Amino acid sequence: MPVDWKAHLDTVVAGNANKVIALRRHLHAHPELSGAELQTSLYLYQMLGKLGLEVRMGPEGCGVVAENQATPGEPALATGHPTEKRIAIRGDIDALGIQDKKEVPYRSTHDGVMHACGHDAHAAIIYGTILALTRLQQQGQLPWPVLWRAIFQPSEETASGAAKMIGIGALDNVEKIFALHVDPTRRTGEVGLRAGALTAQCDMLRFTVRGQGGHAARPHESKDPIASAAQLISTLYQFVPRATDSHDAVVLTIGQVQGGKNPNVIPDTVCLSGTLRTLDAAVRTRTIEQICQVARGVEEITDTKISVDFPASIPSVQNDAELSRLVWQEAEAVLGTDHVRLIARPSMGSEDFACYLEQIPGVMFRLGSAADLTTTTALHTPKFDIDELALLVGVKIMTRSVVMARRPNDETKE
Description:
This protein is α+β, with helices and mostly antiparallel strands. It has 10 helices and 17 strands.
């Protein structure tokens, strides 16, 4: 066994720093929306192919899966860790429909599209982890055999990419999975982590309000779906919080309203779309019933027809307790005990990494990415950026976690 593979890892990560940062900047300058990550995927496919890995494209040319092969003559793992099983690492690659307003050399070159959620950083960290694992394997510096698979996932923002990657076999023969998310509310060199629920369950919500159009001057001759939609939104925002136990977390938001084409015409139909976020299954069921009850009531008083649909649902990210402890220990070893913090309560955000966790155990951690908390920019905003030193921290923790997750049962912890 190598005397100090972790010290050697630090040297490898430092040597690859420029490559990791360069990839992050390339992706940031060339963002692509969910479901359209064709050039991003091709670029990654070509880079990974040059490393001698087995690489394949995701569905419809979006997304990439890459994996290593065992070194010839490599000894088998101890009982309980079959060599054919892999450890997966996942990074998302899609961007958002936001105009990049930063004045930096790597500013988005695609008008109205930018990486405002750190997916460029996630992909770069996964790439850096691949470089580190590959170098350690080639130099015989791994303490035991490690088979891994990297998933560069499309369409996280539309909550559809994880299911598609699972559908093409991304989790076949995988026993554990790791992921991270940059966190601009934490300084670079800090990590946030919690076992159990990390994010909320998110249900996509859609209302279709059907009335009877007419002339704006004679609303009494129509059944105004805009008035009905306004009443629906107002009632939902008043009724749902008042009908929910104050100890239960429920967030209902209508984020899209579509209806009408002319200022002097009452339309026939208005469509509303939004999200419902909950942490408890019983609370979710009860809240859905309340939403439908409100819709029926507004239907009656406005004489319109309102249909309610839930077109998609993303479960809560449930971090595995054992793997959470593993990442915590490795993060402490990299950063020190004072720089790994417990996340006190789940986020009401959603993350389709949860779909993988319905199949196998895994963990997602928060990686601090702010050089200065007084000037930090929030996720999903036009000036979002990261401290690129955080990339190297992420690579170290991710690589160590992957290797330690394959530790044979008869090995003692270092």
